[in-house]
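INFO worker-7 received task bundle
INFO bundle size: 2
INFO processing item 0
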Amino acid sequence: MLTFVQQEHLIELIKKQRCLWDSTDDGDVDFAWTAVSRQFNKKYRTRKLGDDLADEWTAIKKKFLKWKMFPETHPRPRFWRELKFLDKTSTIEKRDASPVEEMDDLEMLNFSQQRYLIFLVKENKCLWNQGERGDTEIVWTLVSRHFNKKFKTTKLGDDLQDEWGRLKKKFLSWLSKSYTYPRPRFYRELQFLDKRQKAEKISTDFDMDDLADDMTSVCLSNSDPVD
């Protein structure tokens, strides 16, 4: 956890990197997070990774957006003044609080968890390739097992499947309507879904040895992506 002073400085750094909070900006997100972490670590003599600060930013932003959308049920966050620049990029309307709607819109995985989920799904082609043989129900159970072990959570396979559906939908919408739809955060990591080109190899911090043999053997590799 960052101190209040560190959180405020993080907000200042992110505000200068528009691609980190404005989905219509074409800036390099990975490069921006590297720049933010470098400046942050230099000031506080820490060793925070870009992913660490991205998770912290997600938590800060979530509190602000919840308050903006549901002011009657959520307290005003500490940095509401500093985060006003987010109003310029999101059409947040005041609505009646709905637990179902709120959960669907805001209770998502953080940056690191989403990235790791994509990594797990990519390694099991039957979860994203209709031409691939495999028991998807068993595979999602194994995905959730590895996910929960890494992050010490209790996510069900259905929970992660829903999150994957949202990530995939955003990517495919951008892919088919790139001129009108904002570029998703993980567009590089999700290139394996693009039938038009070979996926670009993405460097990752995740070790393949972390995945058990029972997981990678469930899906039988026999074709290229078709969906």
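INFO item 0 finished
INFO processing item 1
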Amino acid sequence: MFVPPEMANMTGPHFLTHAETFNAPLMIALMHDPASAPAVVQMRALNNLGNTHVTVDSRYEGTFDVSTMFAQADVLTKHDPTSQKYSSVNSGKGKVRLTNYEGADSDGSSWSMEKPHIYLASPTTTSSSPSSSASAAANQSRCLEYDLISTSEIRGWVGTPPRPPPPPPPFLDDDNEFRPMGHIDVVSSLSGAQLMLLT
């Protein structure tokens, strides 16, 4: 994908993608050109009776919803930049250790949410210990925040904290332009669904 720098702050998504198949594997990779500004991507990948796997590079920011019926949903992440191994909150031995997110509102008051999150591997973050999570936050590392984790559905957000608020309803905010964030839906039925977040 390529987005010219002068189009980085446009008010709509840069790319809208819909891919669908039946009874066959569906594999999609969304990668930025090295010279591209970060793209706002809204994508939906649908499948029935076949595995669905979507991979996005480390420049993707936005929400995601990975769901399936009668199979397992996974969001695959790498937590050690020296390793080639990716793991999911749903995958047995390689389960991801999650922590709670703490932050501050715009008025400076602190708050804590019970949404589990992790900081993704980067050259400056090499482990998932609490002290490295604090240093990752200070270094503005990418964060993965889960809104829902179940065997068949995982929803959340990935990006550099703080997480942007959801868009206001159009009828309440006619004067202000809102730059949408990316969103990826990975949906399958009777077979697995995976979203891989590259680092």
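INFO item 1 finished
INFO post-check item 1: Residues 5-166+180-197 form one domain.
INFO post-check item 1: Confidence is low (pLDDT under 50) at residues 93-113, 123-138.
INFO worker-7 idle
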